[in-house]
Every structure is written in structure tokens, then in C-alpha cells.
Design a protein that fits this description.
70% helix, single chain, 2 strands, two-stranded antiparallel sheet, Rhomboid-like fold
Length: 207
């Protein structure tokens, strides 16, 4: 089994258990106040294993399944580490990095809590976008496909707008941090992707 599918399977299993076991959910959720008070640093990572509801879980795992295997395959051969281990490092580090803005803002707020793999999944999605900017992306919510780079731009605009607006109980800053981390992670390993991406972007511009 590939690392991306193994992560998907573990996340689904843990999330399903946590749906019916509140103590497990509470032990794994990201709570900056608890991290600060008890030094529960495992929550930077374990929050990605639990989700708020079925739809939250489905959307994240749908995206992971759609883009994870390709990104894992691309990472194979870039370093002495296997593609599987690099993918685990990408995913786990993105989960941690995605929590940093929330931790800094809410570490003195006992009412703040966040769960879900969205930050880590955003990293996988944007790693794919950097690698294949012209690839057609067609998510289940869209009746049509579009170039990955265009989808990425629209995604960032939406997340940035919703983050500034606030009030919807979604950690949009985690999505943005995850996306940035995914791009940087792959760009460091293969710097030539950056000029190739901008070259592809010029092809997408009209005229």
C-alpha cells in the first residue's frame, strides 16, 4: 500500500472511532490553550486524524485520494529517501505548519478548537499544482474542469477572502499555510519547477 493510501485509511479509521468516542476526539483535537498549558504538542499532528463530521472527512479524503498518489510518485527518486517517506514528511509537516497561525492567535483562548486534515491536504493539492500547472482539475463540486493553476488561484482568493471575513468557524489560515507549505516543499526539492510553473502560467494568459 502506498503512503498516501495508508494515511487515508488511518485517517478514516481514527475519524470513525472519534465520531462515537468523545474522549478520543478531545484527546486528538488541536486546542492551542491546552497545548500551551499542558505542552500537548502531539495535537499539532493528531488533529489531522479527526474530523468534525462525515462531509468534512469525505472532502478531505476525496482530495487526498485524487492527488496524493501522483505527488507521492513524483517525489520518488528526488532524494535518497523513498517517495513514500517524503510524502509522509510532506503531509505531516504540513499538518503541523498549518496550525501555527491558529496557535499564535488562540493559545490564550480556551474556547478555540480545530480538527481536520485540510491543511495537510491543501499541501498535497498545491504540490500537485506546482508540478502539473496545466493539468485539468475537476473536483466533484464542479461540473467542469479547469487548469490546475487557475483552480489554485481561485482557491487562494477564496480562502484569503474568507479568512479576512471570518465568522464561519473554518480555519482558512490553515488552508493557506498548508498550500504555501506544499509549494515550498516541492520547490526546494526541484527548484526548476518554479520557472516552469511561471512559463505555464504565461501560456494560460489570454493573448
Amino acid at each position: 500500500m502506498s503512503a498516501s493510501l495508508a494515511i487515508l485509511a488511518v485517517t478514516v479509521l481514527v475519524s470513525l472511532f472519534a465520531f462515537s468516542d468523545r474522549r478520543l476526539f478531545d484527546a486528538l483535537a488541536f486546542e492551542p490553550f491546552v497545548v500551551e498549558a499542558r505542552r500537548d504538542h502531539h495535537r499539532f499532528l493528531t488533529h489531522a486524524l479527526v474530523h468534525g463530521d462525515w462531509m468534512h472527512l469525505f472532502v478531505n479524503m476525496y482530495v487526498l485520494h485524487g492527488f496524493g498518489p501522483f505527488v507521492e510518485g513524483y517525489l520518488t527518486g528526488l532524494t535518497p529517501l523513498s517517495g513514500a517517506w517524503l510524502f509522509v514528511l510532506l503531509y505531516a509537516s504540513a499538518a503541523v505548519v498549518a496550525c501555527i497561525p491558529g496557535y499564535r492567535r488562540h493559545r490564550h483562548d480556551p474556547g478555540y478548537r480545530a480538527v481536520g486534515a485540510s491543511g495537510a491536504v491543501s499541501a498535497v493539492l498545491f504540490a500537485h499544482i506546482l508540478i502539473m500547472p496545466n493539468a485539468e482539475v475537476g473536483l466533484f463540486l464542479l461540473p467542469f474542469g479547469m487548469p490546475a493553476a487557475v483552480f489554485g488561484a481561485l482557491y487562494l482568493i477564496y480562502e484569503g477572502t474568507m479568512h479576512r471575513r471570518g465568522g464561519d468557524n473554518v480555519a482558512h489560515d490553515a488552508h493557506l499555510m498548508g498550500a504555501l507549505h506544499g509549494v515550498l516543499f516541492v520547490a526546494v526539492l526541484r527548484p526548476s519547477l518554479v520557472p516552469a510553473f511561471f512559463g505555464a502560467m504565461t501560456e494560460l494568459l489570454p493573448g
